[in-house]
Specification:
With about 220 residues, this protein is mainly alpha-helical. The protein folds into 2 domains: about 45 residues, Arc Repressor Mutant, subunit A (Orthogonal Bundle), CATH 1.10.10; about 140 residues, Tetracycline Repressor, domain 2. It is globular and about 60 Å long.
Length: about 220
């Protein structure tokens, strides 16, 4: 064997499995953070856990984030906020002429994000939606309260016009609709285990979610 190749082969064999990589990007840390937050919970996930999952030392995490709070701030602003901005962007003075359509479009938007971001639904339900959650507290500070109030007023007008079920509390409709979309994603693994022969394909799930949203919104005779 060529001496150079023999030397390289020996070096590869000497490298222990799972040996930490030398560097990692900020984006890698954020991606791993949201994945672990969804899997283990925000409170139970340490910076050391994130470093271990990436394959680096804890010092590398601190190179990008001075402390845990700074990491959480980055997750809120760089992972959660972009999703929220897309969702809230659907609420405009023009779109509020048809609040039912706004809610359905929002449901579609959430569904599409949950498909692309597997961590979104479990993390949202476990922490982000809670005012006591570490990410939830940060999200509460950036909520566009004015848009939520505008949507609520539009919902009330639609209820009065018979376009939305008047028995529902207008202030709860939006969050109820969000839960209708997120919960199936957050519990999908358990549903697959309990019902192994059921079709849980993206198409079947989308049909279920949107029918559920329609049942929530449609006025009852």
């Amino acid at each position: 064997m060529c001496p150079i190749i023999d030397c390289l082969t020996s070096a590869v064999k000497a490298r222990k499995p799972g040996r930490p990589k030398r560097t990692a990007s900020r984006e890698q840390f954020l991606d791993v953070a949201v994945t672990l937050f969804a899997r283990k919970g925000v409170a139970a996930t340490t910076l050391a856990d994130i470093a271990r999952e990436v394959g680096v030392t804890s010092a590398m995490v601190h190179y990008h984030f001075a402390n845990r709070d700074q990491l959480l701030d980055a997750v809120a602003s760089e992972r959660i906020l972009p999703f929220l901005n897309v969702m809230w962007g659907l609420i405009t003075p023009d779109s509020l002429k048809d609040p039912a359509k706004v809610l359905r479009d929002t449901a579609e938007c959430i569904f599409d994000h949950c498909q692309r971001l597997p961590w979104l639904a479990p993390l949202w339900l476990a922490d982000t939606a809670s005012p006591n959650g570490e990410l939830g507290q940060r999200v509460m500070q950036i909520l566009p309260v004015d848009k939520i109030q505008q949507l609520t007023e539009g919902i009330k007008a639609a209820q009065a016009a018979g376009k939305l079920d008047p028995r529902l509390q207008a202030e709860m409709i939006f969050m109820s609709m969000v839960g209708v979309v997120l919960l199936p994603f957050a519990t999908l693994d358990n549903c697959c285990k309990v019902h192994p022969n059921t079709d849980f394909s993206p198409e079947a799930l989308r049909h279920h979610v949107m029918c559920s949203v329609d049942n929530l919104l449609c006025p009852r005779k």
